[in-house]
TrEMBL record:
Record protein name field: NADPH-dependent oxidoreductase
Family designation: Belongs to the flavin oxidoreductase frp family.
Top-rank taxon: Bacteria
Upper lineage: Bacteria, Bacillati, Bacillota, Bacilli, Bacillales
Coiled-coil regions listed in the entry: 186-213
One MF term in the entry's GO annotations: FMN reductase (NADPH) activity
Residues making up the signal peptide according to the UniProt record: none
Function (record text): Reduces FMN, organic nitro compounds and disulfide DTNB. Involved in maintenance of the cellular redox state and the disulfide stress response.
Entry annotated with the keyword Hydrolase: no
Record-annotated Nitroreductase domain positions: 11-164
CDD domains named in the record: NfsA-like (cd02146)
InterPro entries: Flavin_OxRdtase_Frp (IPR016446), Nitroreductase (IPR029479), Nitroreductase-like (IPR000415)
Pfam family, any one: Nitroreductase
Cofactor(s) needed by this chain: FMN
Length: 251
């Protein structure tokens, strides 16, 4: 019996090792078409998806991300916010559409559009028995990614996605998420500090156990320790400047 979409979501985990089996053109097209049918804010479709087939370009992107799975995969996608076509309409019609796409709201709209399309691609790939991993590491050098991919003004690279047949070594269970009660609020946000702190403590213990089991006792880190370390460093502090250079967040 075919599994439900719900079942599929519950099996997700990022795959970082793939078999040397390139995706066919038909599969790539199907995945992109799945992405395109995601909802899109006001029908703006403010994104493009760039498929990377040139090994030299893959290699150059791997240098930026520092991750081997950027080159070793069945296929590599790069997802960009794309207001280039909107800017062409704007120029052709002497409009003032830049009030939308150069605003903070425009950035949110584009980012959400990209994420929705990408998650449709991810789920469809997983339904085909493929594995995926998102690659935010491409934002390590947005300027260089823009040069390599020849991105014009009003096009901004958000992340990549490696797709492929999971390698036989890729075995493991899905990473436990925050419990339902922690993320679901009914009618109003529950900001009860004691309750939230207690919930975090419980989750920390669960995640510590999970890492200990997975690493045979070598790794023992709670969720909040992990998140505190990661979020205490200002990652990619140049992003606002790079957004401005590309014509985003100017208004
Ligand atoms: C936008 C985004 C960017 C990500 N960037 C990377 C990345 O650069 N490299 C990587 O190995 N994983 C990356 N990931 C994968 C996350 O680390 C992963 O989804 C998270 O740890 C949860 O694990 P799971 O996907 O296996 O459930 C990214 C995920 C998202 C959504």
């Amino acid at each position: 019996m075919k599994q439900s979409v719900y079942d599929l979501t519950q099996q997700h985990r990022s795959i970082r090792q793939f078999k040397d089996e390139p995706l066919s053109k038909e599969t790539v097209q199907k995945l992109v078409e799945a992405g395109q049918m995601a909802s899109t804010s006001s029908y703006v479709q403010a994104y493009s998806i760039i498929g990377i087939t040139d090994p030299e370009i893959k290699k150059a992107l791997k240098e930026i991300s520092g991750q081997q799975h950027v080159v070793d995969n069945g296929y590599l996608f790069v997802y960009v916010i794309d207001y280039y076509r909107h800017s062409l309409i704007n120029k052709e019609t002497n409009g003032n559409m830049e009030t939308s796409f150069e605003s903070a709201e425009g950035l949110l709209v584009g980012t959400i559009d990209v994420a929705l399309a990408a998650q449709n691609v991810a789920l469809t790939a997983e339904d085909m028995g493929l594995g995926i991993v998102f690659l935010g590491s491409l934002r390590n050098d947005v300027g260089r990614v823009s040069e390599i991919l020849d991105l014009p003004e009003h096009v901004f690279p958000l992340f990549g996605m490696a797709v492929g047949v999971p390698s036989d070594d890729e075995q493991g269970s899905p990473k436990q998420r925050l419990p339902f009660e922690h993320v679901f609020h009914e009618n109003q946000y529950n900001s009860d500090k004691e309750q939230q702190l207690e919930q975090i403590k419980q989750y920390d213990n669960d995640i510590k156990d999970y890492y200990e089991q997975r690493s045979n006792g070598k790794r023992s880190e709670s969720w909040s320790e992990q998140i505190r370390k990661m979020m205490s460093q200002k990652t990619r502090p140049d992003i606002l400047e790079k957004l401005n250079i590309k014509g985003f967040m100017k208004k």
